[in-house]
Design goal:
The chain is an alpha+beta fold. It has two domains: 91 residues, Glutaredoxin; 107 residues, Up-down Bundle (Glutathione S-transferase Yfyf (Class Pi), Chain A, domain 2), CATH 1.20.1050.10. Helices cover 53% and strands 8% of the residues. It is built from eight helices and four strands. A four-stranded mixed beta sheet has the order 2-1-3-4. The longest helix is centred in the middle third of the chain and has 31 residues. Bound molecules: glutathione.
């Protein structure tokens, strides 16, 4: 019998977030490699599932999900024991989980994405190199907020590692690989600790094995 989940992904992209969450949950999944660099995002099978042509895209039976934070949250709901999302009985922790997940997607990664788009992702005629200092300033502001929260703690939530830590750690690793300085060396230890969790290692191995 084929596994319940199928992840459409591409190494070195946000699909690692979904693979990491699947590994944390101990879920079995098929992995379909989409080579974005060869235009496979715009072709079947991905385009038939996700009109945006992006990864990660997750199939859970008949359900298709296309946003990394939504995928992690969905997996947390499917696997309550994974700790990816605090249960409803932990009201404050659950609210904080949502708050930090939204913070990553709207405050922390947006300036990075702006830089990436204007460095290489947009059509050349739409790129504006002079936007980079503004985006870098916004990124550093979000990093200050994050570092203030993480001072003296190992995880975003008091209850321990959760799906929002996947989003933050992945975003910090992205900044590092793009050589964008967030100005918060204190967060290096946070990144190292989570980036080398066994589930994160397995997710990277799975994505590169399928490549
Ligand atoms: N907000 C989406 C963004 C997904 C996204 O932009 N993925 C990139 C790879 S990191 C992609 O598939 N790009 C292909 C394209 O833009 O055509 C998420 O977090 O899942």
């Amino acid at each position: 019998m084929s596994p319940r989940f199928t992840l459409y992904g591409c190494p070195n992209t946000r699909s690692l977030r979904a693979a990491w969450a699947l590994e944390e949950a101990g879920a079995k999944y098929d992995y379909v490699r989409i080579n974005l660099f060869k235009g496979e995002g715009r072709q079947p099978p991905l385009i038939d599932l996700n009109p945006g042509g992006k990864v990660p895209t997750l199939r859970d039976g008949e359900l298709t999900l296309t946003e990394s934070a939504a995928i992690i949250t969905h997996l947390g709901e499917c696997f309550p024991k994974s700790g990816l999302v605090p249960g409803r009985q932990h009201r404050a922790e659950r609210a904080a989980y949502f708050e930090w997940s939204f913070f990553v997607m709207s405050e922390l990664e947006q300036p990075l994405w702006t830089i990436a788009k204007h460095r290489f992702a947009l059509p050349e005629k739409l790129r504006r190199g002079d936007i980079e200092p503004t985006a870098a300033w916004e990124f550093q502001r979000a990093m200050r907020r994050l570092a203030g929260h993480l001072e003296g703690r190992d995880t975003l939530l008091e209850s321990g590692f959760c799906g929002a830590d996947i989003l933050v750690a992945h975003t910090l690793a992205w900044a590092r690989s793009a050589r964008i300085d967030g100005g918060q060396p204190a967060l290096d230890a946070y990144l190292e600790r989570h980036w080398h969790r066994p589930a994160a290692e397995r997710a990277r191995a799975r994505e590169s094995k399928e490549a």
